[in-house]
UniProtKB/TrEMBL annotation:
<dbReference type="InterPro" id="IPR002912">
    <property type="entry name" value="ACT_dom"/>
</dbReference>
<dbReference type="InterPro" id="IPR045865">
    <property type="entry name" value="ACT-like_dom_sf"/>
</dbReference>
<feature type="domain" description="ACT">
    <location>
        <begin position="4"/>
        <end position="83"/>
    </location>
</feature>
<dbReference type="Pfam" id="PF13740">
    <property type="entry name" value="ACT_6"/>
</dbReference>
<protein>
    <submittedName>
        <fullName>ACT domain-containing protein</fullName>
    </submittedName>
</protein>
Length: 87
């Protein structure tokens, strides 16, 4: 079972480190990540495995919002993400 994390906001040092550190802390295995910076704005999409995660997806969302309040963060189950972006 996988989940998608997306983070968008003004670029600053350490955003990726904060997200990956939180994933490691909660035993969420990162299987893919893509990031870019365009004219000072950071955008990242990360796919994580959540079978062994020590919190719920909702709790991970709340922790991410606490640690990165200056960015727009979203964590959702892969199935929900797929359905939202299906044509």
């Amino acid at each position: 079972m996988r989940a998608i994390i997306s983070v968008i906001g003004k670029d600053e040092i350490g955003i990726l480190a904060k997200v990956s550190g939180l994933c490691a802390e909660k035993k969420a295995n990162i299987v893919a990540v893509t990031q870019s910076v365009v004219e000072g704005y950071f955008s990242m999409t990360m796919i994580i495995q959540v079978e062994d995660m020590t919190c719920t997806i909702g709790e991970l969302q709340n922790l991410l919002d606490e640690r990165l309040p200056e960015t727009k963060n979203r964590v959702m189950h892969e199935d929900i993400f797929y359905e939202m972006h299906r044509i």
